[in-house]
Amino acid sequence: MALMMSTDCSSLMTSRLIHVNSRKGAFSPSTVYRPNSASDRRGCTLSIRSSSSPSAIVIDGKAVAAKIREEITVEVSRMKESIGVVPGLAIIRVGDREESVTDVRDKKEACESVGMTSFEVGLAEDSSEEEVLKYVLGFNDDPRVHGVLVQLPRPSHMDEVKIRNAVSKEKLVEGRYCFGTLDFYVPCIPKACIELLHRYNIEIKGKIVVVLERWSSLDGLAITQLLEREDATTLSMFPPEMAEKFTREADIIISALGQPNMVRGSWIKPGAVIIDAGTTPVEDPSAPRGYRLVGDVCYEEACKVASAITPVPGGVGGPMAIAMLLSNTLTSAKRIHNFQ
């Protein structure tokens, strides 16, 4: 069951503790907050305003994802016409959680929209690890499949590392960060963060970038390494009580905490760029599903200070993350078949 939390930008009153699952001094989603209404979402253009403008430009992940899908469609068609190969993505889903079923459906629809083939295996929640590994190994050997994904979340009785490591390196399109190196494919969320900055022509080189992350987050570590490749000055892995001090000096803030509305407007340097990769379900009886998604950054406050900001939803996650998955799958197919 998804973690349900409530937050309010104007009030950070704690109602109950859920859990702590991180090293001492690291950020963790350990508190629940009371919500207010979501902020208004505005349109955007592909330019960055000066800090004197009245509101931030919205970095529209949905629009960028749609553009990337168009580009992938062209490449998939070219590959099919040239060598008769259609990229294929295999998804193994364990259990029937609503969010997992919806996410897999969205990925399959995205594959269809760009001309890729998708394969789905649905297993019961109590399926054995051996059964999952059997399908993983089968897809590893299947020439129609160029990407293999075991859908998150995975049941607690399964060895996360063992399952990930069972996927062929060439087909691990969700990406993997291996303690200092990005292994073959860049993980989808970090890749989406950097891609959005590039697509909006936001300068990274020489900028001070603060990354708010859980100490155990491999996505956070991957984002940091990608930024270092761009010659940014990156600050991360500091105690939570120092977060505000560092964000006030940042040209770019990338947050991937899962701490709703933690980053306030007063934490942000005027004109900074905000990439909010934190997504938390927040109780909302008026929403169709009884909840809405809230980011790490208090949008109502941040949009009055920042020059550009990603909304939640509609920014880093969802369509944009799926577009990165399709991009990695296309790259895999090209590598496997030596297609330029």
From TrEMBL:
It catalyses: (6R)-5,10-methylene-5,6,7,8-tetrahydrofolate + NADP(+) = (6R)-5,10-methenyltetrahydrofolate + NADPH. It comes from the Eukaryota. Keywords: Hydrolase, Multifunctional enzyme, NADP, One-carbon metabolism, Oxidoreductase, Photorespiration. Pathway: One-carbon metabolism; tetrahydrofolate interconversion. GO terms for cellular component: cytosol. InterPro entries: Aminoacid_DH-like_N_sf, NAD(P)-bd_dom_sf, THF_DH/CycHdrlase, THF_DH/CycHdrlase_cat_dom, THF_DH/CycHdrlase_NAD-bd_dom. GO terms for biological process: photorespiration; tetrahydrofolate interconversion. The keyword Transferase does not apply. The keyword ATP-binding does not apply. Pfam families: THF_DHG_CYH, THF_DHG_CYH_C. Coiled coil: none annotated. Residues 187-335 form the Tetrahydrofolate dehydrogenase/cyclohydrolase NAD(P)-binding domain. GO terms for molecular function: methenyltetrahydrofolate cyclohydrolase activity; methylenetetrahydrofolate dehydrogenase (NADP+) activity. SUPFAM superfamilies: Aminoacid dehydrogenase-like, N-terminal domain, NAD(P)-binding Rossmann-fold domains. Belongs to the tetrahydrofolate dehydrogenase/cyclohydrolase family. Homodimer. Catalyzes the oxidation of 5,10-methylenetetrahydrofolate to 5,10-methenyltetrahydrofolate and then the hydrolysis of 5,10-methenyltetrahydrofolate to 10-formyltetrahydrofolate. This is Methenyltetrahydrofolate cyclohydrolase. It comes from Capsella rubella.
